[in-house]
Amino acid sequence: MMVDLSAFSEEKFDPKKWINGAVQQRHPQDPVEKHLVDLEMRLQMVSEEIAASLEEQSSAALLRVPRASRDVLRLRDEALSLRSSVANILLFLKKAEGSSAESIATLAKVDTVKQRMEAAYETLQDAAGLTQLSSTVEDVFASGDLPRAADTLANMRHCLTAVGEVAEFANIRKQLEVLEDRLDSMVQPRLTDSLNNRKVNVAQEMRGILIRIGRFKSLESYYTKVHLKTIKKLWEEFDLRQQSSKLANEKNEVERASSFNSQSNMQTMSFARWLPSFYDELLLYLEQEWKWCMLAFPEDYRTLVPKLLIEAMSSVGSSFVSRVNLATGDVVPETKALAKGILDILSGDLPKGVKIQTKHLEALIELHNITGSFARNIQHLFSDSDLHVLLDTLKTVYLPYETFKQRYGQMERGVLSAGISSLDLRGVSTRIIGVQGVELSETVRRMEESIPQVILLLEAATERCISFTGGSEADELILALDDVTLQYISTLQGNLKSLRAVCGVDVVAETIGGKKETGADRKDGASHARKVDFMSNEEEWSFVQGALQILTVADCLTSRTSVFEASLRSTLARLSTNLSFSVYGSSLDQNQSHVDNDDGSGNLSTAGKASLDVAALRLVDVPEKARKLFNLLEQSKDPRFHALPLASQRVAAFAEAVNELVYDVLILKVRQHFSDLSRLPIWSSVEEPSAFPVPSFSAYPQSYVTNVGEYLLTLPQQLEPLAEGISNSDANAEEAQFFATEWMFKVAEGATALYIEQLRGIHKITDRGAQQLSVDIEYLSNVLSALSMPIPPVLSTFHTCFSTPTDQLKDLVKSDSGNQLDLPTANLVCKMRGVRLD
Question: What is the pLDDT of residues 566-623, one digit of tens each?
């Protein structure tokens, strides 16, 4: 049996556990006592072996200690000796360094002198060569060898650069400039001929001459000059067609007048129809030049052809703007007859009746889209060009529209204002009794139908902004939308005022003594009432129904504007992402193009290609405008942001005014019947003597309160149609029920408040008047209970105190102590009935 001693070295060694484990390893037939005896014997033998080995190794270690001590002393002596040797070497090196530094300094001075002497020698050689070249340059020019002349002038330029500003060579410097111009002029006809006749070898040779003398600009100029004529002919073709059509029409007019021919005039081609063909021909021409220049000028074709397009578009820029302006005017007969366009309308040069219309802006956007297609083709064709070259080219292509984009906000305001003005938003103008209810309903219908039309106008404006400016004028769009929405809501509010007058809540009424008062002049609100005697009950309810319909106008306006504002915020957030990538992506590619391209050519990267849209082209060079726009777009991501801040406030104010009007109309009949209630003569009447026992008061409520009660009980039936209109589905049924109940409670609470106010205005009441008033109050309380309205404690106190006999009233008030009665009201009733409580 082997004994494993590794377990004894563990920190958590457990003797009992180890013994139990050793016992479990025995053979089942071996007795436990024998196994333990064997285990003990083996452990004892192992321990003896360990002790013997330890003693032996300890003795050997003691023998090695003296020898190790001697080795340590020897190593220490050697280290001291080595340190001394190193110190001597360092001292020697310091001495050598001092002497070598002086030698090196001397050698550096000698080398400087040598370099100056070599430079002087080269300068003298250049000066001598410059003099020689100056004297022989005329012979070179006379030989007609242009490449040799270019080399000579290049050498002269090199020599002048080496000599520097020396007065003796000033004349040669002037002579060199003259000679370079002379050589430039000699190259021009040959280069022009090679460009016209597609002579690749000659063109390359002439290009090399111009590059040799540093005249690359001349190459660009000659190349542009040759091909610009062809492009201008393409552009002038439109005027030629117009003149041809005009002459043909005049000729037809003459022939028709002489022969009575009914042949119609030839229609002239519009600029919008002609522009795509011009772009197609121009693109084809540029593609051919691009391919030819790749052969003739492989180093410069990425610059030459874009430069040609830039010069061409710049040369026709003013004419392009004029044609676009006239093309926008041709779509509307009024401006077409005047031969004017959008810019003329915005400048105010046209009659006041001529206003900018949606068709004007749509025509402008159509032309812009045509140019956008051409720009995308140019971007694809010039994709190998440097980014800043491509940017400049595309900006030049879009340049004719910049004048219009800078005035986009003004244009959009004009279009939207015209759209708002075209809506039928007439207020109530009929003043004939009997038809005002119909006019009220028609006016509300026109208001409600105008809301979705206005939202469509606003949505169309947003689409136009993105289509025309790519969102770069989003800030101007928001201002225009806000202003026009305010204009629309102001019109609705004007209609609301006319509705108030028709409904009778703002009409001026005649009062006693012939003095006119408004609703603000009288506390009881009687002046707000129409004369009930002059209209039927059916017309009265028609006013109520018309007023209730206004609530749908306010609800529709609030919900539609809220949805549009959320959609506009979403559009602005999307623009924020797109424009940030476009503008900053283009700027990054433009600044870091040498990093993005391994060949060092500065070609457009993939990110730059994707980001070159119309907005990026406008914003990349105007960081201040871009910063303000991005701040606005970043704010739009906040849920609390109002895209139409002023309009949102005005919508809320309009909804509040509508609620106020509806309430005034619904409470109007109550005001009429409760008018002068506190001054009714029955309150001060006394009991008349009679020979028969009759009641001292009427057992029935008076007409003023029964009319109000009947009105309140009928009002839910009037609210049902409007609630059904709101509840178009089962999902809104609960909302409609809440709506009807809410307004019913408002009117009932208002009627109760008016009634209590009139009761408090009674100065003195007799017992007979008190008995009658208690019947009236009881009837109104029953009506309120039928409408599931709680009875106010003040009204209950009035009923209790008026129904109580005068001799018992004091005891009632004293015994209640505020448990059931409203004490201020009870004290007021006591004062009315002449009961003293003290």
Answer: 999 989 888 888 776 555 555 544 444 433 443 444 344 444 444 467 877 888 878 8
Across all residues in the chain, what is the average pLDDT? 79
**Same-domain status, 645 and 689:** no
- 717 membership: H or E segment, kind and range: helix 703-726
- The H-or-E segment that residue 94 falls in is helix 32-143
Residues 118 and 222 in one domain: no
Same domain, 569 and 454: yes
Q: How far apart are CA 505 and CA 508, in angstroms?
A: 9
Q: How far apart are CA 172 and CA 130, in angstroms?
A: 8
Among candidate residues 158, 173, 207, the one where a domain is terminated: 158
Distances (CA, A) of 95 to 218, 317, 400, 543: 66, 80, 80, 119
Dist. CA 516–CA 524, nearest whole Å = 15
Strands (E), 511-613: 516-517
Cα→Cα distances 383→170, 286, 300, 379, 589, Å: 46, 13, 14, 6, 13
The percent of the chain in helix, strand and coil, each rounded to the nearest 5, is 80, 0, 20
Residue 491: C-alpha distances to residues 422, 426, 457 (Å): 12, 9, 16
Rounded to whole angstroms, the Cα distance separating 380 from 290 reads 12
pLDDT tens per residue, range 546-573: 778 888 889 899 999 999 999 999 898 8
Could you tell me if residue 69 is inside a domain? yes
Please say which residue of 616, 634, 650 terminates a domain: 650
SS3 of residue 386 by DSSP: strand
Same domain, 230 and 332: yes
Q: Do residues 462 and 474 lie in contact, with contact meaning Cβ atoms separated by under 8 Å?
A: no
* One-letter identity of residue 367: L
Which band of pLDDT confidence, cut at 50, 70 and 90, is reported for residue 262? Answer: very low
Q: What angle do CA 361, 366, 372 make, to 5 degrees?
A: 125
Element (H, E) at 17: helix 15-24
Residues 449 and 402 in one domain: no
Say how far apart CA 17 and CA 430 lie, in whole Å.
113
Quick: pLDDT tens for 281-314. 999 999 999 999 999 899 888 999 999 999 999 9
Domain assignment present for residue 192? The answer is no
Q: Whole-angstrom Cα distance, residue 366 to residue 655?
A: 39
509-510/516-517 β-pairing = antiparallel
Of the pLDDT bands very low, low, confident and very high (cuts 50, 70, 90), residue 519 is very low
Number of domains in the chain: 4
For residue 534, list its beta bridge partners.
none
Residue 197 lies in a domain: no
The two tokens of residue 43 are 């452990």
CA 556 – CA 553 distance, rounded (Å): 5
Is the Cα torsion angle 209, 214, 218, 220 positive or negative in sign?
positive
DSSP state letter for 510 = E
DSSP 147-158: HHHHHHHHHHHH
User: For position 169, what pLDDT does the model report?
Assistant: 54
pLDDT tens, residue by residue, 92-129 = 888 777 777 777 877 887 777 777 666 555 554 545 55
Residues 697 and 610 in one domain: no
The answer as to whether 166 is a domain residue is no
Nearest Cα to Cα of residue 837 among 797, 824, 760: 824
The pLDDT score that the predictor gives to residue 256 is 61
Which runs of consecutive H residues, i.e. helices, occur in 787-832?
A: 793-803, 806-816, 823-832
Residues 29 and 102 in one domain: yes
- Distance separating alpha carbons of residues 331 and 270, to the nearest angstrom: 10
Query: Domain limits at 689?
Result: 676-832
Residues 448 and 363 in one domain: no
